[in-house]
Amino acid sequence: QVQLVESGGGLVQAGGSLRLSCAASLRTFSNYIMAWFRQTPGKEREFVATVTGSGGGTRYANSVKGRFTISRDNVENTVYLQMNSLKPEDTAVYYCAAGLAFMVARESYNYWGQGTQVTVSS
Fold it and tell me: Contact, 72 vs 79, CB < 8 A?
């Protein structure tokens, strides 16, 4: 059974940093595109960042470009999201996802974690 388990969320002041982790129980982790999405109440889940299987390719939402960095460790089967210069509008539940297409659409991802809350205070 595939499991994606996020950790690292919490409360931080504006301008601060957090690093999210997602541990995956995928058998062939390096074959999967990994991504981060986020969601706030009443809104659709939105794309944040994605990384190719090798880690050599990345894509970011315009709202986080230059502040967030996605990376992965194919030995530890873990994907990370380093979030710097956080803003109150980054407050959301952050979800890890795995799929086989290097896409931004959430429908492209087959497996999802349970989410971790990130709250940025002003």
Answer: yes
